[in-house]
Amino acid sequence: MTKTLVIGATGTVGGLVLAEAVRRGADVRALVRNKERANLPDTVEVVQGDLADREAVAGALRGVDSAFYVSPHETNEVELATIFGQEAERAGARLVFGGFHIEDDDAREAAGSAIPAYVPKLELAAFLASTDTRPAMVSITNFAQNDEVFRADIEAGTFPTPLHPGGVNRIDLRDAAEVLTTALVDVSFAAGSYQLVGPESLNGEQSAQIWAEELGRPVVYTGDDPEWRKAFERRLSGQKLVDWIRSFELLSAAPIPTTEAEVATMTKLLGHAPRTLRDYVRDSVN
């Protein structure tokens, strides 16, 4: 049985990875800041500690075969990832990263020049990719689950997140969690970079229409309103607010198309067709 450590177990991505790993019967350990508030399954070994505490990180990694890392919304995210990558290497653990990674050095440098705010995220991913951990570097497009942050707005009749009119690839994180868990528990899963995608690109109006149809009442797209950031300020705070606004500024400025080849690769990784946004919304509503 694989012993795996999950970072971000109380968050959206890490929580779904943890749930999938538990479902598959893996021996799961979670590093959390507060054990009392974690509310994780009884089968999970919960250890308390902070990613900035090297000793705590080393202890959490001791004895595990693999470890999942998702970067928290912190200003020192590069430092945190560096500590984790170094200690995973010392522990001999296979590292699986979920987030945003550009493998090509020139492309990564160009992206950093074009989007200076993303330089720390690009740097931390590049460092993790360089570790001697057989790293699986998994990039994920726009999450369907992001809509949950604005669920109250959506149910009240507005879809406030800006998405480019040309469409943005949207992925159900349940699919991402399946692939990430496979990378954690299957020793034959090859190291390298993987781009996970959903089956289609959708713009804001299309996303709002899907919600309207599944809820059975009108939902109007308001992400093209110049004041869209105010909806984010009502739902988020701190560094997470900053990160989300930066991300959606990009998602509103450029499309993320979906290719048949990407969907075919994703289908092969999953062993089934990727879920649509409608699949996610329907399951969420019902």
TrEMBL record:
It comes from the Bacteria. Residues 4-225 form the NmrA-like domain. Pfam families: NmrA. Gene3D superfamilies: NAD(P)-binding Rossmann-like Domain (3.40.50.720). PANTHER family: PRESTALK A DIFFERENTIATION PROTEIN A, PTHR43162. This is Uncharacterized conserved protein YbjT, contains NAD(P)-binding and DUF2867 domains. It comes from Lentzea flaviverrucosa.
